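Notebook entry, cofactor series.
This is the third protein in the set we're modelling with a bound small molecule. For this one the ligand is zinc ion. I'm keeping the input format identical across the series so the outputs can be compared line by line later. Sequence and SMILES below, as received.
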Amino acid sequence: MVIFDLQCTYNHIFEGWFSSSDDLKNQLEKGMLSCPICDDKKVYKIPTASRISRRSTSGDLKEGTSKALIYKKHQEFLREVHDHIEKNYEDVGANFADRALKMHQGEIAHKGIRGSATKDEVHELNKAGIETLPMPKKPPEKNEIN
Ligand SMILES: [Zn+2]
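Returned structure with ligand:
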C-alpha cells in the first residue's frame, strides 16, 4: 500500500491509500476520486516529506528499488505538482503574504496564489489562520539533467 496526500480545489487535504502510484494515477485520470469532506471531484496529489519517506519503505517499492529510483520518482512527482500549481495559481512573487492577508480580510477577491514568503511572514499568516503550503523547488526538466 502507498499513502498519498490529496487535495481538492477547496484546499481540503486528505489521505488516500493505493496499491501503487500507477493505481493512484489511474483513479485520478478516471475521476474516481473525490474529496471526503466536500465531494469535489477535482482532487490532486500533493507532496509531503513524511509521506514520501513512508512511500520509500512501502511494499510498492520493496523490490529492486534503488535510492536513485525513489529520488527520480520524487522529482517527477514534484514536477507534476509544480505544473499544476503554475497552471492554476497566480504568481504574486514576494507579495504572497500581503495578498494572502488581504484576501483573508476580504479586501481583494479570493483566488489561488503562489509566491514566496519569509519565515516571519508565514508565521504571521498562520497566526491569522491562513494555511500555506511550503513547496520544494521545481526540479529541472528531464532534458536538463546531465
Ligand atoms: Zn474538499
